[in-house]
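Quick one from the shared queue. A colleague (R.T.) flagged TetR/AcrR family transcriptional regulator as missing a structural entry in our internal table.

Convert sequence to structure tokens.
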Amino acid sequence: MNNSDRDTGHATRPKRADARRNAETLLDAAAAIFVKSGVEAPVRDIAAKAGVGTATIYRHFPTRADLIIAVYRHQVDACAEAGPALLATSPTPHIALGRWVDLFVDFLVTKHGLAAALQTDNPGFETLHDYFLDRLLPVCTQLLDAATASGEIRPDLNAYQLMRGVGNLCIGADNDPRYDARHLVELLVAGLRRPR
């Protein structure tokens, strides 16, 4: 390997990190626009929110389906990664669980915005539900186990039941301004506490 090869190798690493950050910025912008305007929102709106040109979005995500799948996975990953961090930084495991459930609700609101698109015949969408469960069930289990071990919550609920219950409470939240899903989810999480 000559010096120019070494220099090139060093120059490409930061670009890969920059490209990853740029893609994350695009995904965050797309998620925000999808929540506000739906998955059929113009790409130019996403580009404006991200501070890039539309060509940059198409370079990363050639089709709208590619973008929708990437937003979904990005949000699942962010929710999964937040669980252990919240457990490490929250005053108690029950508080960590409540904070994580708040993030999960935020994800579900966006997911319900993607629901129509996810029901199409695009083969890329087929694996998303499994990805969702594979990434989030272990995190929710870890949080529930920690809160149970600390004696804060009842031991008679598993992660799937909690996630399903939260999901059911979120259905229709975006269509009815009188319905406050977040408040009901807070009551659900509070109800997990062990009676004193």
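The longest helix spans residues 3-37.
The chain has a mean pLDDT of 84.
Added to the table.
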